[in-house]
Amino acid sequence: MEHISTYNFLTFLLLFVVFNVVKGQPLVPALFIFGDSVVDAGNNNNLYTIVKSNFPPYGRDFNNQMPTGRFCNGKLAADFTAENLGFTTYPPAYLNLQEKGKNLLNGANFASGASGYFDPTAKLYHAISLEQQLEHYKECQNILVGVAGKSNASSIISGAIYLVSAGSSDFVQNYYINPLLYKVFTADQFSDILMQHYTIFIQNLYALGARKIGVTTLPPLGCLPAAITLFGSHSNECVDRLNNDALNFNTKLNTTSQNLQKELSNLTLAVLDIYQPLHDLVTKPTENGFYEARKACCGTGLIETSILCNKDSIGTCANATEYVFWDGFHPSEAANKVLADDLLISGISLIS
Known about the structure:
Radius of gyration: 19 Å
Order of helices and strands: HEHEHHHEHHHEHHEHH
Largest sheet: 5 strands, parallel
CATH topology: Rossmann fold
Strand content: 5-15%
Distance between the termini: 25 Å
CATH architecture: 3-Layer(aba) Sandwich
Structural class: alpha/beta
Shape: globular
CATH class: Alpha Beta
Number of helices: 12
Number of strands: 5
Strand order of the largest sheet: 2-1-3-4-5
């Protein structure tokens, strides 16, 4: 019975989206994106950082087979989300724009690989902290006022969807490998620290006019191929300790977000669950149309990401559509499509 009602809801949602998109009208005026490498569309390209992906084989299944700085073989879940919302282009990487005028009318992407809620994570990798991403967004608002006029800019800002995806780098690229953190704080205490930073970020984004915010949960950190290789004690199974840390963080994220929504008037703050859909793909790949979930497509598939995933990486798969993961940390385009469709369902409050 539950399956039928879910099916009916999906049908309604699809019709709703198709009807609006056929009219040539996106469901919202703009999409603004903040966060880490899961949503970075190329902001790290010109930074002095090792966390880059603007070279082959990244982007080999993207438009024109060109690497753009997306940590994927093709589209990100955020790109599919833009399509689902009816946009014909993707929010551009803010730092890559030669001209920042009319290009910003449908939104922009401020995300930076290796960034997180915890500012020191971004500093470790010379990435753009969330605090700095907000500064870029302030600049963007001023440009919008100049291009569209104050009144139009104001309605773009209040009607836009703001997508936030962070937290994974804080754990995997900082806490778990940093004795200055893991010897001082339990994972639970570190989650509390991240929640304080998350709260301030949402309050600041709200103060700048955001009223429809979607924030993704942590994925099953213990199922990322590189995490199994690094922390799995020679097993090929997901690492329970890391997954439990992610679930604990996600519980806090839900509670904190509910409190923020009560505190800030006219705010719709939707928590978008990435954990369960990705966990399903990893634990039941064949049921979801995938063949390989332990190894990523790039190189050996056990550890490579960023500069270690390059055109000379030996063993890179020929067809990434069968793989849940593209590199050691990031889903493939095929997996991102599945995740984006789930995001649309859990984010329905942002467009209804």
